[in-house]
Amino acid sequence: MSSQSISRSLSRRRFLKNAGGTLFGASLLPKFVAGVLAPSEIVRAQATDPPPNLYFAGTDGWIHLPPSPPIEFYFPDDLAPGTDRGYPAGLNTYIFGFRNITGLDDTQKANQKMRAQHNAPLFWVDQFNGSNEFRLQLTNLGLQQRPDLTDSHTLHWHGFRNVITFFDGEPTGSLSVPIGRNFTYVYRPRDPGTYMYHCHVEDVEHVHMGMTGPVFVRALQNFTGATGAPIARLGGNTTAGVPMGYAYNDGRALSDPASTAYDREFAIFLSEVWAEAHWCDSHIQLPDWSDYKADFSLLNGRVYPDTLAPNGSVDPFNPARDGNGDLIAPAGRPELQYQPLSALVTCNAGERVLLRFANLGFREASMTLAGIKMRVVGRDATPMIGRDGTDNSYETNTILIGAGESFDCIFTAPSFSGGSGSSGQGYDSYVLHNRRLTQVSNLSGGGLAGQRTEVRVYQSVVDAQQYPNDWGI
């Protein structure tokens, strides 16, 4: 690694960049430091065998937001790429982000520069059972729109109880990944629940620009069962009537109202776009974060009605990609190529549906499911069943979710009406939306874009779910 000179006056950005570049390998550290930061687990983690379960890349890119009403001067961004540069029409907002590059060759990996997605890829892991370590390798492709920024990147699980700070992703206590380098994170997830992850370098900027996404840990009970709780379908059980999985290790019978068994699961990830900040980053300017205003509020990287549009690929371990390794756009919506995750919830009447809410916007949200009660079974990856077995879960149709918080909520789909309550399209529709109206719209022109989606209840036509957010239709 080439040495870098350090100026007498270091900005936070420059300090973190140099720290990441200088402290990248244990072999480069002083011996007394290497002895502390390089236990056998860390040395083994950086080996090539076994290979990582997932391989992510940090880079920049462009996404689509409703272009009308415009925000004077800042949106749509006049530097957005067009079809002449190989991008779909309609991209208008600059982002930083992550991409899943698992299984790509070196040429394909390099082609993903400037093709980040928002939100970052959804993924999940199984609770640690003594042998199933999860490995995620991160590389830094750099920023094509901003080659002057040589920021390092990290991957930090917000709220995750990581006893080895080396793998935490907070750059003052672990390592950051410079451009062109790789780093492998190793996890032993011991606490099931819903989390979120993000880059922790220049974290206000990088989080807001899109380097953030949902991640969750599936309960060990899926595979071992418990008193009154059979092994779930996720554990390989093919017996009729067993649940897909459990949100937590509850040890409750399926008939118990406090059971966290579910038939379907959907990630609902909340984030925001302040158009001025995104414009400033693409135009080599610095925003004043004290002026922050959420012009757009997003669910799974989209705003309504795009939240109802089809998914792109929903399998992070075997994503559908073209020959160049690029994402395949959702059917009929090429402009959503880099926003692959739908927020539409589909289910059959009578099914138990787990909604995994996570908020990494900077504003509190009031998420309301009109017409259906949700049971809150977990908050911040902590079950609502206490250690003494007391059931502290509760029913509500609204959760107040602050920045950095997560909720696990289960509802039972109502009976299919097929009558006046039906949409006339073969399903009953229930609105899931943010009631804090001052935070859900493009406020510059009073637009309708915001954190809103639907729960669609069918009679029985939705197939068994294969992956989270899979519609099954």
Structure, described:
With 473 residues, the protein is of the alpha+beta class. The protein has a domain at 15-218: Cupredoxins -  blue copper proteins (Immunoglobulin-like). Helices cover 10% and strands 26% of the residues. It has helices at 12-22, 31-37, 40-45, 106-111, 203-209, 221-224, 275-282, and strands at residues 54-63, 93-100, 123-126, 134-140, 156-158, 182-187, 193-198, 212-218, 245-246, 261-262, 264-273, 296-299, 345-348, 352-359, 365-369, 374-379, 382-383, 394-396, 398-401, 406-412, 428-434, 452-458. The strands form five sheets. Strands 11, 12, 14, 16, 17, 18 and 20 form a seven-stranded mixed beta sheet that branches. A five-stranded mixed beta sheet has the order 13-22-21-15-19, with no helix packed on it. It has a four-stranded mixed beta sheet with strand order 2-1-4-6. The model is unreliable at 1-38 (pLDDT under 50).
